[in-house]
Amino acid sequence: MFSIQLNTLHLILQMQSFIYYKTSFGSATFPINFLKKLLFFRIFIQTKIGGKMRTFRFGTLMLAAAMLFSSALFAQPRPRRGDFTRRHPPRHSPARGKEVAKKISRLMDEGEFDKAAKLIEKVLSRPKATREDSVKVLPLLAVCYNAMKDWENSARIYQYLEEHDAKNAIKWRKLKEIVSAPERDIAMERLPNTVNSPDGEIMPVISPDGKTLYFIVDDGKNQDIYYSTLDEDGNWTKRKNIGPPLNTQFSDGILSVLPDGNTVLLNGIYNPDGTKSAGYSISHNTGTSWTFPEPVKIDDFYNRNKYTSACLAADGKTLILALERDDGYGDLDLYVCFRKDDGSFTAPKNLGPIINTSGTDGTPFLAPDGITLYFSSDGHPSLGSADMFVARRKDSTWTNWTIPENLGKEFNTVGWDAYYTVPASGDWVYFVSSGFDAIGGTDIFRAKLPAEVKPKPVVTITGKVTDTNGNPVAADISYERLSDGKNLGIATSNPKTGKYSIVLPAGEKYGYSIHKQGYMFFSDHIDLTDIDSVTTIEQNITLKPVKVGSQIVLHNIFFEFNSAKLLPESIGELQRVLKLMQENPDIKVEIAGHTDSIGTESYNLKLSQQRADAVKEWLVQHGIDSSRIIAKGYGESQPIADNGTEEGRAKNRRVTFTIVDE
């Protein structure tokens, strides 16, 4: 079964009555030799063969020419004696027509557009078309001009359609604006042959640090996952097959990679017997290999379509899916699911009619800012087949979005443009296109993103997690919104290297923590409310074992100024302390309060004791036996930094947690 990826394909069927006409509108005349330009156009047809999705490319003219030379257009001559023995069929016979159609198709695929156009012109006549015919066929002509980057003539067509096709006037106006806009100086860079090949490359996924590119290679027999890395000179290394267990005898693909670089979302459910079924899976990097993919459990999951695409956001908790479901608006729609405490995801929620259309909306990528969504669509105004769009989420409903914006004529071609992926820096966009002189059916390209379509700035915190002996630790990382303690994202550190990375969107105050069973947790906080640029912070973490003498600073405990009243921002840290004591029921601890040297010594001693008491009281109220906790205030007597600076005083104002017995 074929699924043709082009809304306007049905217009070709209208050409049988229109093919001999020329069209006049406004002050411009468009002769029927537009077929000469039509040769630039391509149709992409996707089908499933042997369980694999294949992409085939056909010249539009092949279909049009087949109609031109069919017996329906040319009467078959009465047979004459010996005609059946002639070496060449009559000029207008069906056989001759098919031969010419094949020649046109061959010329088109070889890029001999002028020769093919002249061949078509031999059979064309030029009576005028009706306005109704013009409205039906002119969109296809506009696509041809788009292919040649003849923006002036494209704009004229869209202007005419806006005036004479009231039902779709908004669509034509938008397309007119796109092709009439000043052309931006954006260079499309095809990735080198160490990545691209005569095979089809699709579904690129760039790691948030921008240093590893995962993608699918379709060699005509199988679809496997490959990857390439940036070397020290900024060149992409020769691609490598990622191997088992991620690659199988079936269609395989990485859909997303989390900022830690250790977690990937995969297409399909990997069954123990070696087969695959519909759905999604998660795999983790152990440092030497990838774990066997585990299925992602989604409430009320079903998909009426045999195709899908997905994106696991940088927070590891938000899943965007392209599905066809009963509450959809068209073919594939975009949905969102949220990770629950047990690791499963909520039922898919439709992103609504601002994003989804009656057409196909898919290949989503939610940028690390958690707001900016890139996706492909043939339902929104497009220059040809599927175009790429960007929209921004306005609130937490996930149905209130800005109007999707076509990324423009510099990015979108008349072919198939999809699978946009952006690193945390937001500087480059990687994507798949059949245009821009791709040597395979589709190749991977990249380009600099204009400021107006870039994601919002983010801060990347990265480093290594080790124990007190310097050995790497595979730890869990989480971050929360300080205002209410809500967990906003998760990550893991690499078991072999200890490397970790989290990406925090601008606009919030965050607390983050690193924890591992058998160790004291580490926590800290950062204020990104006024951030306006992409930043990377390196922070190496040492986790201390749960044993007598181990001490940590509770960086995310906050009090009102000159008071022992706990602020709401402390809730996440308090819950971590509570969990640590619940998991280690035999330990006894000291909660100690410390101040800076501002104020009198007696006042500071009293304040520090009150603050230690406040933390103890909260823990007791939440089930910890008071006999396990010693609360003590030290005032300004144990500084760890210079009280002569504001930075030093901030470090001295702290609450510590020390194991004193077990």
Q: What are the SSEs and their pairings?
A:
Elements: E1 2-4, H1 10-18, E2 23-25, E3 28-30, H2 35-38, E4 42-49, E5 52-59, H3 60-68, H4 94-109, H5 113-121, H6 131-147, H7 151-164, H8 169-180, E6 189-190, E7 200-206, E8 212-218, E9 223-229, E10 240-241, E11 254-257, E12 263-270, E13 276-284, E14 294-295, E15 309-312, E16 318-323, E17 333-338, E18 349-350, E19 361-366, E20 372-377, E21 387-392, E22 405-406, E23 417-421, E24 428-433, E25 443-448, E26 458-467, E27 476-481, E28 487-492, E29 499-505, E30 509-515, E31 522-527, E32 535-538, E33 541-543, E34 551-553, H9 571-583, E35 588-594, H10 601-621, E36 629-633, H11 646-652, E37 654-661
Parallel strand pairs: 26-32, 26-33, 35-36
Antiparallel strand pairs: 1-4, 2-3, 4-5, 6-25, 7-8, 8-9, 9-10, 11-12, 12-13, 13-14, 15-16, 16-17, 17-18, 19-20, 20-21, 21-22, 23-24, 24-25, 26-29, 27-28, 27-30, 30-31, 34-37, 35-37
Helix pairs in contact: 1-3, 1-6, 3-4, 4-5, 6-7, 7-8
Question: Radius of gyration, rounded?
Answer: 31 Å
Report the major sheet. 4 strands, antiparallel
CATH topology of the largest domain: Tachylectin-2, Chain A
Q: Which second-level CATH architecture of the largest domain applies?
A: 5 Propeller
**Relative helix content:** 10-25%
CATH superfamily of the largest domain: Glycosyl hydrolase domain, family 43
Shape: elongated
- Name the beta content range: 25-35%
The total number of structural domains is 4
Q: Provide the spatial order of strands within the biggest beta sheet.
A: 6-25-24-23
Class computed from helices, strands and strand pairing = alpha+beta
Number of strands: 37
Give the termini separation: 68 Å
